[in-house]
């Protein structure tokens, strides 16, 4: 049909390059109808989709910025807590060193006091044993002296009072001789 239309238009003397006004009107009405449908239904849907996407992206950026700010705040808080913890650890370490020095000094004092007490106790025990040994030695020397004197004198010196006087006199003489020997 189009070929017939061109032939007819050529036969009528019309210019084949200029379209028919009814065709122009149909094309313009169709284009207007198409534009109306696009503007009324398709563009708002695309615009809504675009706005939703923009809001999602901006919301994501806002959330990311908020998360970054929270992360920075948490990092600053963490660093502050870490610095406080290090300070506290240093303080505790210094307190422990001071306390350890005090404990060592106190232990030394107790050890010194205990050593002094043990030494004094040992000295007292030695002195007591010395006195006990001297007393035992005097008894044995007195007994031997009494026996020896009895043999020399030829009479029994078994009488306690008399033997005690003899022993005491012998020991006193012995002490005088020792004192005279030490003084020289």
Explain how this protein is built.
The structure is a single chain. The protein is rod-shaped, with a radius of gyration of 66 Å. It contains 3 helices and no strands. It is mainly alpha-helical and 184 residues long. Helix content is 91%, strand content 0%. The chain has helices spanning 2-12, 21-153, 160-183. It starts with a helix and ends with a helix.
Order of helices and strands: HHH
Q: What is the count of helical runs?
A: 3
User: For the terminal residues, how far apart are their CA atoms?
Assistant: 171 Å
DSSP strand count: 0
Ordered list of secondary-structure elements with their pairings:
Blueprint lengths: L1 H11 L8 H133 L6 H24 L1
Short description:
This protein is mostly helical. It is built from three helices and no strands.
Notable characteristics:
184 residues, mainly alpha, 91% helix
């Amino acid at each position: 049909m189009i070929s017939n239309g061109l032939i007819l238009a050529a036969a009528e003397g019309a210019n084949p390059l200029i379209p028919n006004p009814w065709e122009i009107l149909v094309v313009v009405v169709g284009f207007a109808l198409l534009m109306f449908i696009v503007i009324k239904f398709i563009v708002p849907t695309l615009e809504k989709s675009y706005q939703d996407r923009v809001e999602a992206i901006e919301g994501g950026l806002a959330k990311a910025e908020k998360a970054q700010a929270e992360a920075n705040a948490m990092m600053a808080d963490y660093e502050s807590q870490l610095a406080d913890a290090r300070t506290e650890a240093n303080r505790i370490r210094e307190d422990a060193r001071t306390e350890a020095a005090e404990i060592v000094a106190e232990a030394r004092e107790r050890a010194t006091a205990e050593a002094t007490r043990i030494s004094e106790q040992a000295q007292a025990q030695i002195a007591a044993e010395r006195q006990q040994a001297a007393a035992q030695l005097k008894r044995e020397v007195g007994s031997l002296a009494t026996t020896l004197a009895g043999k020399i004198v030829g009479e029994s010196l078994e009488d306690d009072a008399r033997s005690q006087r003899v022993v005491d006199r012998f020991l006193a003489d012995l002490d005088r001789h020792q004192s005279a020997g030490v003084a020289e």
